[in-house]
Every structure is written in C-alpha cells, then in structure tokens.
Amino acid sequence: TTLFRSSYGTMKLQEDCWNALIAMSDAAREDGYNLYLKSAYRSWQTQNTMYKNRLKKNKGKDDGWVSKAGASDHQTGLGCDVIPKSWIKAKGMNSKMAKEPECQWMAEHCQEYGFILRYPEDKEEITEINYEPWHMRYVGIPAATYIMENGLCLEEFNEQLQQAIEDYIAAGGDRKKVEKFIQKPNEE
Q: Looking at the DSSP assignment, which residues form a beta bridge with residue 132?
C-alpha cells in the first residue's frame, strides 16, 4: 500500500494502482490537464458510516451513490476518485463532471494505464451504481484495454472471464492454470 498526501488528507492505494495513477496523472499533465485524487482506500468502518449517512440523508432510500460496506470498490485499494481541479471545492459530485475536459481525457486514456471507468453511464442497471465519471478502477493494462474497447463494465467482464474459464476447463484445459481466476459465488 502506498500513501499519498493531498488537500483531502493522507490516502492509501495498492502499489500497482498507485504507480499507474502517477503515470496517468503525469500523462494528463503533459496534455494540459491536472488530475486530483479525492478518495482512495476506505476501511469497512468508513464505508459503513458513509453508507448509513447517505441512507439517513435520503430517508432510508439507497440512491445508488454510495455502496454498502463490503461492496465498495474503494475497499480494495484499487478504486479511486480522480477529479478535475475545477471540482476540488465543488459541493457535490455528480454526472455533470463528465463534461469536464479532464474526465473526458480519463475516459479516453485510462486503459493505457490499467484503469477502467468503473461505473459507466450506460451500465447503471448492471453495476447498481450511478454513473461516476470520476471513479477509476485499476485492473491492469490487458484487462482495462479489453474492457474499455468492448464497452463493458467490470461485472460484464467478469461474467465473460468466468465463461471463458468454464469453456477452457470443459475443453480439457488444466484447471490449475486458471484456478486463481475462478470466482467463487458469494454466500449471503
């Protein structure tokens, strides 16, 4: 985990994610854009508090802006909120941010650094989270390239990956070679 100090305080990210974020930020700066890290890793307790506060604000209704603790991308250390300078003092984050040149640049270039736009506008029914043009998720360059070039969200990619693994094993492939990629069903 790498620490990052910003006007928002000290933040943590997985090392690969951090290195990729630095590279993406440097490239954006070379193109004339300044990206700011607003939020990174969140503990279970922090995420739980944020979720409960959101529910309280909305009279108990989950409006798709804050994930439940245990389901947040931020809890992985691979998800981060990256915003344009003009939104540093903004009172709220919303889909209007997508019109900012920095967010358009990220949507166009994020896969080059291993990131995906985690919650795309046209995938809200699948992700169950509102469109967030600021939310980047590190998945590595090969996966990010595939996801972004095919217009997928992470859930769709994972579904395709699991099917490809099943097909590989059914065709006589060595299960041990793909074992670490097999997702076990969640038991609730």
A: 119
